[in-house]
Amino acid sequence: MKTREGESSRMSAVPPFTSCATKLKRYIHLAQRNAFVYSPDAPYDDWTMLICEDGLVEYRVGNRSGEARAGDIVLCPPGEVLHRNALTIVSFQFAIFELRSFSEEKEIPFPYYGKHSFPQMSQFLVFAEKLKSSRELISESYTEHLLNDALYQIVREKTIRQKQKKATDPAMAEAVRFIHQHVFDEVSTKSAADHVGMYQSQFTRKFQKEMGTSPSGYIAGLRLEKIAALLVETDDSLEKIAHQSGYQNAYYLSRVFSKAMKMSPSQYRRIHQV
């Protein structure tokens, strides 16, 4: 069965994603390349990423296909072939890299592939320009940070779409509302379960079924998402953001954020702020 364009979920039974790490194997940038068709004879052993800067490219990854244009990236897992057909003159970046992803401390398969569109073109342009110059001007490690960030972007957008899904169960809908209202307070699985009058074990099972992630994973992801937004959208100090988000101090917030995001808050702000 063919999956619609842009669908990027790889599997539904994977535990909640929390972090990833990349190791760059190869990188190329091609500008103003004439129309072409390219289908490798064999799949790569590692992950590949096509970053489309200009033009129009038809792609196929396994049973997923569509068109990519400026502002899109296409992610292909090991063991699959990334077929591409440039329909116009194109400019793009292409990276091959090792990828390890984790749920807390447990290693899991990275759960998404296919096309991902950046929500804002300005954000994509900053990312593409930094990636293009990262190895020559800074370091390969910085290139890997940028690749990590693109992967986090994919996960964030998928998570946001899941969170925007309306809970059909009234108790779970109320739990979600309660979590959003108190995400920077002392909200927990227990307090959310108590709020809707359920035993914690029963609440966890129902929440997982309804929202596709555990209550604790949902809370942690939402909290990090809001902290990341404060880093990008404000010039507030880390100490101020720590107090706003319920952390003891900037040092503790930095430890939590760096562990989850594999980069410090200051690095995240530097990469994302336009």
From TrEMBL:
Domain HTH araC/xylS-type positions: 173-271
Gene3D superfamilies in UniProt: Homeodomain-like
Q: Which Pfam families match?
A: HTH_18 (PF12833)
Write one Gene Ontology MF term: DNA-binding transcription factor activity
Looking up InterPro entries in the UniProt record yields: AraC_XylS_family_regulators, Homeodomain-like_sf, HTH-like, HTH_AraC, HTH_AraC-typ_CS
Instruction: Alphabetically list the UniProt keywords.
Output: Activator, Cytoplasm, DNA-binding, Transcription, Transcription regulation
Q: Which domain of life is it from?
A: Bacteria
Protein name in UniProt = Helix-turn-helix transcriptional regulator
Q: Which organism is it from?
A: Paenibacillus hemerocallicola
